Amino acid sequence: MTSKLAEALQEIAESSDFPETLKTADIKGKPFNLLSIRRVNTENGEKIIGNIEIEGQHCEAWLSGSKLTRQLEAIESSLPLSVVVNKDEGQYAPYLLDLA
């Protein structure tokens, strides 16, 4: 039993079929269901990853930006919600969350 469990763990460790975490820009303008969020510590500080359902698929996406972070904190207790991330034109325009 232990060797089968060890083999299963090793198989998972060696697999490469885990989907990439989407970037905020990848989901911009696309409605999705935000199911939950989690905070992760990165070399650039604390960031938020959303567990989302978009275009019929479950995946994770980085939800970054100072205003977006504050908006996510405001709605966290109301999840799940249908939302969309938008951004005005311009290099420094913030990502913003809207209800879909």
Would you identify the regions where 5 or more consecutive residues have pLDDT less than 50? Answer: none
- Tell me how many strands there are: 5
For the termini, the CA-CA separation is: 49 Å
- Which value, in Å, is the CA radius of gyration? 16 Å
H-E string: HHEEEHEE
Structural class: alpha+beta
Portion of residues in beta strands equals 35-45%
Number of H- or I-type helical stretches: 3
Largest sheet: 5 strands, antiparallel
Structure, explained:
It is a single chain. The protein is of the alpha+beta class. It has one domain (19-99). It is 27% helix and 39% strand. The chain is built from three helices and five strands. The protein has a five-stranded antiparallel β-sheet with strand order 3-2-1-4-5. A hairpin with a 7-residue loop joins strand 4 and strand 5. The termini are far apart.
Keywords:
100 residues; alpha+beta; 5-stranded antiparallel β-sheet; 3 helices; 27% helix
